[in-house]
Design goal:
The structure holds two protein chains of two kinds.
Chain A: E1 8-11, E2 15-20, E3 28-45, E4 49-64, H1 67-79, E5 87-89, E6 95-97, H2 105-108, E7 113-127, E8 139-151, E9 155-166
Antiparallel strand pairs in A: 1-9, 2-9, 3-4, 4-7, 5-6, 8-9
Chain B: E1 9-16, E2 31-38, E3 41-48, H1 52-56, E4 63-70, E5 76-84, E6 90-98, E7 111-118, E8 133-141, E9 145-147, H2 163-169, E10 173-176, E11 188-191
Antiparallel strand pairs in B: 1-2, 2-3, 3-6, 4-5, 4-7, 5-6, 6-9, 7-8, 10-11
The chains are: A mainly beta, B mainly beta.
């Protein structure tokens, strides 16, 4: 069974995401990818509702932003009109280029990735009318849609839409 | 009720950027790729948010190869083609299987892949030239991916021995060329009658009265 055939029983309302980076992490330049693992830890069928408890783990990989240092470099370059003034003599007598390597070399090789993990829990109740056959239902959580973008330097905002699927069916996995 | 946690569902959203704009912050992502992994099955859907021709700078073109490059050993494999629709936006879908530990996977643990949309095939892709790479994204998947598409096996061509070859190897019938110059439109054979030395030149006969036994005359 292909993944696209998974039938979603219910799509939850979107969850707004607001994350703040931990202190020891650098500012976000570009978000490269996000990975989301939703898990249901407990569920309970009541008289007319289904209680679901769980958590989702979001990992965000990003490249460090370099806004402040970038403008400084540009100003410096405009200021010194003599090309050789940016060359420095090393102790062994060789010239070195004073220009930092980040602008030239880092673009060619793979950039340094930073990954932050966030854990959020959810606890929700679902009307049993939504579920067609509750006796044969075992809830599983999938991601319907997810988006995240940087909001300023150190915060991330976005949205997450979760969907409920039945994992009790045979041949589902 | 407790739920077992080994459903193995993961969702990835990979943002795709032109390779030269990774260091500058101004441009947002030019496309996204969503990867869903459920157990050992996975599905990737990708779409661009700007026309692909704008990135490539080429004229009309409908197909762009999509490559997966394993970051560890730079091994590349083609997973399909990004196709553009009427408005020029690219779309791509790919189904794959993942190597589950204990299921014969050569690499266990997370693997980092580079997702590339290019203008050329992997064979002619030069590492030093970025112009052929239109979009790229990096994703770390929980396990190695494998292509689900059916790959044909290489059939070995069966070499059939012809009867003529077999007769040439037979020592009792040897093709010879006795005349110099050879006589046209003729072929000459040496036919030898050799004694059967294994059975001591005895002829094996048959005794009608005692069926199980063989008689020697």
């Amino acid at each position: 069974m292909a993944i696209r055939d998974i039938e979603k029983t219910f799509v939850f309302p979107r969850i707004p995401l607001n994350f703040e980076l931990p202190e020891n992490y650098p500012e976000v330049g570009k978000i490269l990818n996000i990975s989301i693992v939703p898990e249901i830890t407990h569920f309970r069928f009541g008289r007319d509702e289904l209680e679901i408890k769980g958590e989702y783990q979001i990992a965000v990989s990003y490249i460090k932003g370099q806004s402040d240092s970038g403008t400084d470099k540009l100003e410096n370059r405009e200021f010194c009109d003599n090309f050789f003034s940016i060359l420095k003599i090393q102790s062994n007598g060789l010239f070195t280029d004073d220009e930092p390597e980040s602008s030239l070399i880092n673009s060619k090789t793979s950039p340094e990735l930073y990954t932050v993990h966030f854990n959020r829990s959810f606890h929700t109740y679902l009307d049993l009318e939504v579920i067609p056959r509750p006796r044969f239902f075992r809830p599983g959580m999938v991601v319907e849609r997810a988006h995240l973008e940087r909001n300023g330097g150190r915060t991330l905002k976005g949205e997450l839409v979760l969907g409920l699927v039945n994992v009790a069916r045979r041949g589902f996995r | 009720m407790e739920v077992s946690k080994d459903l193995g569902y993961r969702f990835y959203n990979v943002f795709l950027y032109p390779p030269d704009s990774l260091s500058n912050e101004v441009r947002g992502p030019c496309g996204t790729a969503q990867i869903e992994v459920f157990g050992d099955k996975g599905r990737l859907t990708c779409h661009t948010s700007i026309p692909v021709e704008k990135l490539s700078g080429e004229g009309l073109r409908y197909e762009f190869p999509v490559l997966f490059c394993r970051e560890l050993d730079k091994e590349m494999f083609n997973v399909g083609y990004l196709k553009t629709d009427k408005s020029g936006l690219g779309e791509f879908a790919w189904e794959f299987t993942t190597a589950i530990p204990g299921n014969g996977g050569s690499m266990n643990g997370p693997v980092t892949y580079r997702f590339l949309v290019t203008t050329r095939q992997e064979g002619s892709l030069d590492e030093g030239r970025d112009s052929v790479i239109l979009l790229e994204g990096i994703v770390t998947l929980a396990s190695e991916v494998r292509d689900k598409r059916v790959v044909g096996f290489k059939k070995e061509a069966k070499v059939r021995k012809t009867d003529r070859n077999a007769s040439e190897t037979n020592p009792l019938f040897q093709k010879v060329d006795p005349f110099h110059p050879p006589i046209p439109n003729t072929s000459w054979w040496r036919i030898s009658i050799q004694p059967d030395l294994d059975n001591g030149s005895w002829q094996v006969g048959y005794c009608p009265r005692q069926k199980p036994y063989r008689a020697v005359f």
